[in-house]
Design brief:
Helices cover 45% and strands 16% of the residues. Helix 3 packs antiparallel against helix 6. Strands 1-2-4-3 form a four-stranded antiparallel beta sheet. It has a single domain, classed as NADH Oxidase (3-Layer(aba) Sandwich). It is globular and about 50 Å long. It starts with a helix and ends with a helix. The protein contains eight helices and four strands. The chain is α+β, with helices and mostly antiparallel strands and 187 residues long.
Length: 187
Amino acid sequence: MEFSELVKKRYSCRKYLSDPVEREKIEQCIESARLAPSASNSQPWNFIVIDDPEKLVTIADAAVSGIFGATKFIKKAPVLIVVTADKGSFVMKAGNFVRDTTFYLMDIGIACEHLVLQATEMGIGTCYIGWFNEKSVKKELRIGKSMDIPLIIAMGYPNENHHSDQLARRLAKGGARKSLTETMKYL
């Protein structure tokens, strides 16, 4: 598949078939993320893959608890990938301070985009989840205070009928992407 075709095909999938995702395919997605570049080659990411149905319920319930119910669709995803982040060394933290930037989050974004694009190429749907109860998820997974969970990725084979309906509704509401001329300019 051509890259331009791949990026057009990728979308935030929120409705999945109940079919499990093969571990070989999950590992291929993680391998694509692992190969992503990072500032000072820090590789600040780790991926906790949850595909056991009982553990999925526990983690999904923790993630959508409290005010975070809007993302309850993750309870139906066959796979959740909890992305943990190492905030970086002293040098990285100093660079973050000087530039008023959080480099490890940029690195996580690059790695995760590699992951979701690899999944798309294999016909697997994904959705970034940023709205979740991090404290509850950290407690369930016994993750210490030194690590962040910047996001969770829901993953599964997409319900194609739902996607077609969702796309039609978005386009009817004027939800098309901005044009190229709206998003760039030459100087």
